[in-house]
Design goal:
There is one protein chain. This protein is an alpha+beta fold and 722 residues long. The chain has 5 domains: 58 residues; 205 residues, Histidine kinase-like ATPase, C-terminal domain (Heat Shock Protein 90, 2-Layer Sandwich), CATH 3.30.565.10; 138 residues, Ribosomal Protein S5, domain 2, CATH 3.30.230.80; 102 residues, Rossmann fold, CATH 3.40.50.11260; 118 residues, Four Helix Bundle (Hemerythrin (Met), subunit A) (Up-down Bundle), CATH 1.20.120. It is built from 23 helices and 24 strands. The strands form 5 sheets. The chain has a 9-stranded mixed β-sheet with strand order 1-8-7-6-9-4-3-10-11, with helices on one face. The longest helix is centred in the N-terminal third of the chain and has 31 residues. The N and C termini lie far apart (116 Å). The relative contact order is 0.06. About 13% of the residues have low confidence.
Length: 722
Amino acid sequence: MPLEKLRISPISRINHHPHANPMTANKSTAKATAKATKQSASKSTTKATAKSTADKPADQSANKPAVETHAFQTEVQQLLHLIIHSLYSNKEIFLRELISNASDACDKLRFLALTDKGLLDDGTGLGIWIEVDEQKKTLSVRDNGIGMNHAEVIENIGTIARSGTRKFMQQMSAKSAGENAGKDADKNANKDAPGNSFIGQFGVGFYSAFLVANEVTVLTRRAGAPESAGVKWVSNGDGEYTVEPIERSAHGTEVILQLQSDQQEYLEDYRLRTIISKYSNHISLPIQMPKASEKDDSSKDNTIAVPPAEQAPDWETVNKGSAFWAMPKNKISAKDHHAFYTALTYDPEPPAVTLHNRVEGKMEYISLFYIPAKAPFDLWDREQRHGIKLYVRRVFIAEDAKQLMPNYLRFVRGLVDSADLPLNVSREFLQQNKEIDTMRAASVKKVLAELKKIASKDHEKYAALWKEYGRVIKEGMIEDFANRDAIVALLRFASTHVDDDKQSVSLTDYCKRMPSKQKAIYYLTADSHASAKSSPHLEVFRKNDIEVLLLSDPVDEWVVGHLTTHEEKPLQSIAKGDLDIAELSGEAAAKDTDKENKDSADAQYEHLKPLVEKIKAVLDEQVKDVRISRRLVDSPACLVADSHDMGGNMERIMQAIGQDAPNAKPILEINPQHAIVKQIDATGELAADWARVLFDHAVLAEGAALKDPGDYVKRINKLLAR
């Protein structure tokens, strides 16, 4: 049989008949394509003419041009170049693709052998063998799967984007549907369908071999065919290939890559084993390589070693062959999880939380998540994430599947293994669709539910987790509105109820301790816990034993911006707006109304109006207003933001990250009962200096920096000298 030289065709330009004579396949294809094009154009013209005649008068229909239908044309060489050099960002992926193809071939044979025992009559177990020839600079990937005949080689390899696996799945599904017609559908019928174990979907993975090879040779024979029915396929990736018949004793397929001069690293045993371990370690079939030969001591001298006579290599399995996460949960011990977690993350400490979940139904996937006991070193690098690994049918696809876990849960480690997750043709990036959104939503809910369970049953363990990840979880209030209620239940804050800086108070705990007269949940934001704890804004609250949440994480400003109420109680900053003293002071509660309280206070401090006006005039460029304070007890002054203005702490955070903040002036409140305020003479020569000192003291008290520290020191020295 002569050698054939053919061009690789795009799928839209091939038209093989399933029973065509292999020797005339190329000629038949050309004739069939030309005939189909001619018939298609003829039918299109006839339909268009008939429609035109029916809708228009005869004189108009005769002049109307015919509608033409054409197929898209493809420059095959350019298309091959795009597939080889654009689909894959990492050259080592070629080995994953070839192993996946070999795995599919073995699975097809296993499935067909259920009805044709003769296909596996040699008794050899199915497997994949990888071998290198350092002298010839070749790498071969061999399987004893279903193999291909002459027509299938041209159809599957000679046609770009034609997936033999996908076609096989469609044929089996159609056959199964026909056999089950008229019968009751078994709800578990799909569990044994062949598609549940096959990997290939797009028919382009094979061409990734040209990433590293100058020439690719395929030797194959279909199982059940005679030895004389072997086929040899050769191409250098330039758009053409040759096909010739050969004698082949073993069924299956062998792909031989003539490696490029700059890709010799793939001849190294260690390099190949590393790639297999990374991408294909959990494929159910054994992947075998020759055992690494030990160097003979005699190699240290200058004698030339004589190669031994050619003999069969001693093979060893280099993949695990089973997926740890696919095992039943009741058969995996905590020690096993620790070992797997360490191998997955390189963290020697056991994980604090383990979540192992299998989902079956419309979607089938397994998720295995771990929460480390200690925060990863790169936790605060939002761009550098190494969280969830993605597998599809136990084949590694992506290091960090960002679509499967939100950014605020970036500390979660683990993997997802999907049976039918859609990927793009390079299988490196997920496509956005409802299935992915559903999987993501279920994973997030699972993690949040487990954290809530720990928070309610093991306070000490949750306190340790919150210390590590609390600030990250708070980001979920801004990023994940759908799970807002679940995240709120996890939030913990420091408070005046406890003396230390531990964030251990939940909003629910706060509400349980609220006095019946209290109408709001009070909080104070600051740049540190020490600054918040010593803030003058707390004085009236401490005096009346009212709990205040102390928020010192930068993200807290955004949290309270998105969380306005809890259990129908509004969250209110004690450093913004005016205070409702009626609910804080028992004495004030005895009054008839808040307005009467305020009027009474105004009358009491009528004599301070000249001082207030003087301070306001001196600080006109620094403050919006000056007023008598109802929140100060021990401090002479404090700064308060207006109800709808940005607070001072938020303004400083915005400036620190390089963002423009609104230039909103604060309000200066003075304490009429403080000794410094009482001794200031509004008409004296030092009134202006005292006004500026009060303002600077208020700035320092809220943790801000003075714009001119030198001027402040001079002013203090001047006042002390008097």
